[in-house]
Specification:
The chain is built from ten helices and 14 strands. By secondary structure, it is α+β, with helices and mostly antiparallel strands. The protein has a domain at about 170-275: 2-Layer Sandwich (Enolase-like, domain 1), CATH 3.30.390.50. It has a five-stranded antiparallel β-sheet with strand order 4-5-10-6-7. Strands 11-12-13-14 form a four-stranded antiparallel β-sheet.
């Protein structure tokens, strides 16, 4: 059974009545399905206009659940969103970026999801609609484990909301893979640093992905950076102790030890990129 609702309320009603697989861009759903037929209904959200696009408001930025990575990369956003825009250019090929959605990236809940560290660094929240009504969760609470989220049966993600509390900060995103493009991360880092008129850090946000079941913010490092000169050398303040909460695994791409060492190097480089004029960040 193929169902194509045209509103959030209709989508919720159809899921309540029939259940089924939620389909948006399809870039995760179809590869996971392989050659097997769908076991139940498919609820296609591609006609739900209210969850599309990127909207910049006075106090927040709203990424509709159907917003594609190409749309995010092209959107006119404050400087603090540069890490997210860089990550958007690293999500698979351009064809995947044109179809893959921000909500799909989060709901797939891969430890190596490129969009998660930048959104964590931006204090993003996830807007959800379901049979019990609408609710909102911090992204850190939405992602509950490996391939696991806080979505209840019958619920859908409608948007990702980012408060505009650090617009002036400078941001960087770095991703380490086995090759330059089209690669699953070994480790990745998003950082945002905001400085005051005296050139000292007033706020820092650092998130690491692909080194735990869920990407993590480095709260101890963020606190240690406050008050430091926002100048070259900032990255040297990051130490292995700041990454102690990460739990990298051994797999075909890298050992846990290599991931931990790589993450520390990426954190230092990302912080340097945030305070170095004319620096560029992306895949390494």
């Amino acid at each position: 059974m193929y169902l194509r609702p045209r509103s959030v309320s209709e989508a919720v009603e159809l899921l309540a009545a029939h259940g089924g697989t939620i389909l948006a861009g399809g870039t995760d759903v179809f590869p996971a399905q392989g050659e097997r037929p769908f076991a139940g209904p498919v609820v296609d959200l591609s006609a739900v206009r209210e969850i599309a696009g990127v909207t910049v408001a006075a106090d927040h930025v709203r990424f509709g659940a159907r917003a594609t990575w190409s749309e995010i990369a092209a959107a006119e956003l404050p400087p603090a969103f540069d890490a997210l825009r860089l990550a958007a250019r690293e999500v698979g090929s351009i064809q995947i970026q044109n179809r893959g959605t921000v909500a799909g990236n989060l709901c797939n809940a891969s430890p190596a999801a490129d969009g998660v560290p930048p959104l964590l660094a931006l204090d993003a929240a996830v807007e959800i609609a379901g049979p019990a009504g609408a609710r909102r969760l911090a992204l850190a609470a939405f992602l509950t484990g490996y391939r696991s989220t806080a979505l209840a049966p019958g619920e859908i993600v409608t948007a990702i909301l980012v408060p505009r509390t650090i617009d002036a900060g400078r941001a960087a995103f770095l991703k380490l893979g086995a090759r330059r493009y089209l690669v699953i991360s070994i480790a990745m880092v998003a950082a945002i640093v905001e400085a005051d008129a005296a050139g000292r850090v007033v706020k820092a946000r650092v998130a690491v992905g692909a080194c735990s079941a869920v990407a993590q913010r480095l709260a101890a490092l963020e606190a240690a950076l406050v008050g430091a000169p926002a100048a070259p050398g900032l990255g040297a303040l990051a130490t292995a102790e700041h990454l102690a909460g990460l739990t990298p695994i051994d797999d075909v791409r890298a050992s846990g030890g290599y991931r931990r060492d790589a993450a520390l190097t990426l954190v230092a480089r990302a912080l340097e990129a945030c305070v170095t004029a004319g620096s560029a960040a992306g895949e390494v």
